[in-house]
Amino acid sequence: MASKKKVAKKKATARKKRSQVSTRKGVATRKRNDLTSRLKEDLKATKEALRAARAAAREEAKLTKAAAKAEIDLLKEQLKVAQKREQALLKLGEQKARMMWQAGAKWEKEQLTKIQKKFKSKRQARR
After folding, report:
1. What is the per-residue pLDDT across 3-44, written as a single tens digit (0 to 9) for each?
2. How far apart are CA 17 and CA 13, in angstroms?
3. What whole-number distance in Å separates Cα of residue 16 and Cα of residue 23?
4. Which residues lie below 8 Å from residue 27, measured CB to CB, with a gap of 6+?
5. What is the DSSP string of 62-117?
C-alpha cells in the first residue's frame, strides 16, 4: 500500500507540473501575442508618421519652388526694366554727344567765319 500511495503522489505531482508548464506556456504565448500586437501598432503608427512627414516635405518643396519661381520672375522683370533704362540712357547720351558735336561744329564755323571776316577786312583795308 505504501507503494500505491507513492504512485498516486507521483501522478499528482506530474499533473501539477504539467499544469504549471501549460500555464507558463499560456502566459508566454499571451505575452508574445500582446507584444506582437503592440509592435504591429507601433509599426503602423511609424508608417503613418513617415507618410505624413513625406507629404509635408513634398508640400514644403512645392511652396519653396513656387517662392523661388516668383522671385526669379520678379528678378527677370527688374532686369528688363534696368535694360530698358540703360538703353534709354545710352540713347540720351548719344543725343547729347550729337548735340554737342553739332554745337561744336556750329561754333567752329562761326569762329572760322569771324576769322575770315577779320582777314577780309584787313586785306580790304590794306588795298
Report:
1. 555 555 555 555 566 677 778 888 899 999 999 999 999 999
2. 6
3. 10
4. none
5. HHHHHHHHHHHHHHHHHHHHHHHHHHHHHHHHHHHHHHHHHHHHHHHHHHHHHHHH
Residue type, 88: A
Alpha carbons 12 and 7: distance in angstroms, whole number: 9
Cell numbers 501575442: residue = 33
pTM of the model as a whole:
0.49
Among residues 52, 31, 50, the alpha carbon closest in space to that of 42 is found at 50
Cell triple for residue 40?
Answer: 504591429
51 — alpha (psi -120 to 50), left (phi > 0) or beta? alpha
